[in-house]
């Protein structure tokens, strides 16, 4: 299998020149064999026009995306949904059963293909899994990417806790996940709670992180201190090759 590439497309952390920072999160994952590369869009940020502009600035064509994985139903993660579907109605969506039945009905009416994830983990295409639905407010799923040197867990906001998402992933992976990426939902947490989450992730086997979006400034700084060079910086355009 060719290397997996992860690139952030949307973030409230300032990113590459030509991109706009706005509250929300989205990333593009490129995976598969050399002769059959596929692309998955993880979440869609809060604003479709900004998402599409950032994609254009980073050379990502909406029509070249095969999958759309939505972590949860908050506005800052599905705000660009209609913009993506308008340009790419053939995309395959991965939702969970905590999403609104009205949203699913609209997708039916538009003829959009989608798959519903329940509580159990689901490998929806080889090497890519949903953790399954975790209870939180709102309910959330995370994406898990298998690679030879250890898996990567990508969250939208980690409302259940990033450590809970990683623990769920470790329950079905052959070896503990190594990397955690996304929003860690620590923006309202004090220093003690942030440190507890860092230690929990270390104990679960996480050695590399990219904490951004709703992690908060104090949380991002704490992860940078704890993980040093193994703490990546967010912002649209940030890349990670696995």
UniProtKB/TrEMBL annotation:
Gene3D superfamilies hit by this protein: Ribonuclease Z/Hydroxyacylglutathione hydrolase-like
Residue ranges of domain Metallo-beta-lactamase in the record: 25-213
CDD domains: DHPS-like_MBL-fold (cd07713)
InterPro entries in the cross-refs: DHPS-like_MBL-fold (IPR041712), Metallo-B-lactamas (IPR001279), Metallo-beta-lactamase_dom (IPR052926), RibonucZ/Hydroxyglut_hydro (IPR036866)
Pfam assignment, any one: Lactamase_B
Protein keywords: Hydrolase
One Gene Ontology MF term: transferase activity
Protein's name in the database: Metal-dependent hydrolase, beta-lactamase superfamily II
Native source species: Thiorhodovibrio frisius
């Amino acid at each position: 299998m060719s290397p997996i590439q992860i690139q952030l497309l949307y973030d409230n952390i300032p990113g590459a020149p030509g991109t706009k920072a706005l509250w929300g999160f989205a990333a593009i994952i490129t995976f598969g064999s050399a002769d059959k590369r596929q692309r998955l869009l993880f979440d869609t940020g809060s604003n479709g026009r900004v998402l599409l502009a950032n994609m254009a600035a980073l050379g990502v064509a909406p029509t070249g995306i095969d999958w759309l994985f939505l972590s949860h139903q908050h506005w800052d993660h599905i705000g660009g949904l209609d913009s993506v579907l308008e340009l790419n109605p053939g995309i395959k969506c991965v939702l969970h059963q905590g999403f609104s039945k009205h949203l699913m009905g609209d997708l039916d009416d538009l003829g959009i293909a989608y798959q519903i994830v329940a509580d159990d983990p689901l490998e929806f295409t080889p090497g890519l899994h949903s953790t399954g639905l975790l209870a939180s407010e709102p309910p959330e799923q995370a994406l898990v990417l298998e690679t030879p040197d250890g898996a990567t867990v990508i969250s939208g906001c980690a409302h259940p806790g990033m450590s809970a998402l990683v623990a769920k992933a470790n329950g079905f992976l052959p070896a503990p996940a190594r990397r955690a990426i996304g929003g860690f939902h620590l923006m309202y947490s004090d220093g003690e709670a942030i440190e507890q989450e860092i230690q929990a992730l270390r104990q679960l086997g996480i050695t590399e992180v990219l904490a951004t979006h709703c992690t908060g400034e104090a949380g991002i700084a704490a992860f940078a201190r704890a993980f040093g060079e193994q703490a990546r910086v967010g912002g649209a355009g940030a890349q990670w090759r696995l």
